[in-house]
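Folds abound. A case:
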Amino acid sequence: MKIVLSLIVVIAFVSSAAGQTAKDVKSESYPSQEVAITPATFFGPFKINGEKPKGFENFDYFILGYKTDADAERDNRDALLPDEQGLVAVRGQVSTVKGSLLDFESVLLVETGTVTLQHKRGLPTRLVHAQPVTISFSTVEMKGVKYVFRGEYLDEPAEEKGAYTHLNGVLSKFKKGKLVAEEKVGFVRVAYDALSDAQFAAEVEQ
């Protein structure tokens, strides 16, 4: 008899919790267009999180932007909507520690699938991509050096190494066409003000 009563109590508790969860958690999905909605999240600037791997000491940051100056001047979000293949039209650069800029020779920013907004009472809204936004780029060659990257953006920043990683992937360095360094890295998004201060400090040291 005690066992039966215990089971009844457990079932009642579980049923109540399930009903409460259903009421407290709401979600809505829509086609992924987050680059157009919040471009700063994907444009950066992005620096390597933590100590730079061997071979990448001269790599400072990379940054994305609108494909054309006209779209940038108007902040034309429609220009950042993915096409039928999920491609978002952008351009970008890698900056070295000494301030040299290597334009992207090619770049693919891909946003496909859906996004789900999960609302849970008492907690911040979570944004979850059905498929991660991915990026790959290769720079032009400067003094025989070029960089290549393949990675994906995280739905939520991951705390590690004293900062928050927003993007994970594989960074490669080529010299005169030969692969000389390759490492898995995380990138942290930094403020433009911090970037300007770092550039100024580098110029003063030169």
Summary: The chain has five helices and twelve strands. Residues 25-205 form one domain. The helical segments are 2-24, 34-37, 39-43, 69-74, 192-205. The chain has one domain: 25-205.
